[in-house]
Amino acid sequence: MYVYLTGEHVFFVALTRLQSYPSPLNYCHFPKSVCTSVNEVICHGIPDHRPLKDGDILNIDVTLYHGGFHGDLNETYYVGTAAQDPDNIRVIEASRNCLDESIKMVKPGALFRDYGNTIEKIAKSYNCQVVKTYCGHGVNQLFHTTPNVPHYAKNKAIGEAKPGMCFTIEPMITLGSYKDKTWPDDWTSVTVDGKKTAQFEHTLLVTETGVEVLTARLENSPGGPVAMPKANGEANGVNGLKEETKA
Q1: What average pLDDT score do residues 74-79 get?
Q2: Res 113: pLDDT
Q3: Three-state secondary structure along the chain?
Q4: Among candidates 58, 14, 55, which has minimal Cα distance to 33?
Q5: CATH of the domain at 111
Q6: For the residues 197-201, what does the mean pLDDT come to?
Q7: pTM (2 decimals)?
Q8: Residues with Cβ < 8 Å from 88, sequence gap 6 or more?
Q9: Among residues 46, 74, 87, 175, which one has the fewest Cβ atoms lying within 10 Å of its Cβ?
Q10: Who contacts 201 (Cβ-Cβ below 8 Å, separation ≥6)?
Q11: pLDDT above 60: residue 1
Q12: Could you read off the pLDDT of 43-70 as tens digits, one per residue?
């Protein structure tokens, strides 16, 4: 199944039929319409001819330009029997939960530097780490703009959320080192130790009372949470959080 070849083409055709355009295509010379990042690829993977293999984990990062605005989201998926591997579940569900919990913090007055404290605390509860090189970003008529939203603790980001602001949160979580390196294509970012990584992202609009998730999942959206494996005779649950991270 050559997902990278046929999937990228189908994606482009689908967007043009919706009178939309794939934001990544030719953005700073990015050559494709969508980012596809497998296993140790943190982000900005370029679709190619590599067939997906049973046990892979795959992040699909989609941004489209429609009606004068960009919308940005991504999700990591289990391929085949990948959901039978506890480490795959750990890193994917850690990233999913980091995003879900940080979204709950978004409201007028919330400081951009505070999301990283929650994200890193949750990641560590799964024995995972947080990539520091990349961050969430403003998105509107521009693909990438202010504010910057770091995902790690004790960062120095400035500013606070205000009604009408639109930005992403997109934590990149690793099983091993948080450090990254970039391939010679100048785009593909991978973990330095080759261990797997997962990411989730939504575009968020700050309202007068809280937040609206502009890229929220639908009832029939593919994928979704997978329960953590049982440990010591007890299920860890879907989110896998330790009690201390719920406060």
Answers
A1: 98
A2: 98
A3: CCHHHHHHHHHHHHHHHCCCEECCCCHHHCCCCCEEEECCEEECCCCCCCCCCCCCEEEEEEEEEECCEEEEEEEEEECHHHHHCHHHHHHHHHHHHHHHHHHCCCCCCCECCCHHHHHHHHHHHCCCEECCCCCEEECCCCCCEEEEECCCCCCCCCCECCCCCEEEECCEEECCCCCEEECCCCCCEEECCCCCEEECEEEEEECCCCEEECCCCCCCCCCCCCCCCEECCEECCCCCCCHHHHC
A4: 14
A5: 3.90.230.10
A6: 98
A7: 0.90
A8: 55, 57, 78, 82, 196
A9: 87
A10: 61, 72, 73, 74, 75, 99, 136, 168, 169, 170, 215
A11: no
A12: 999 999 889 999 999 999 999 999 999 9
What tokens appear for 116 in the block? 């990283």
Interval 106-138: pLDDT, tens: 999 999 999 999 999 999 999 999 999 999 999
Number of domains in the chain: 1
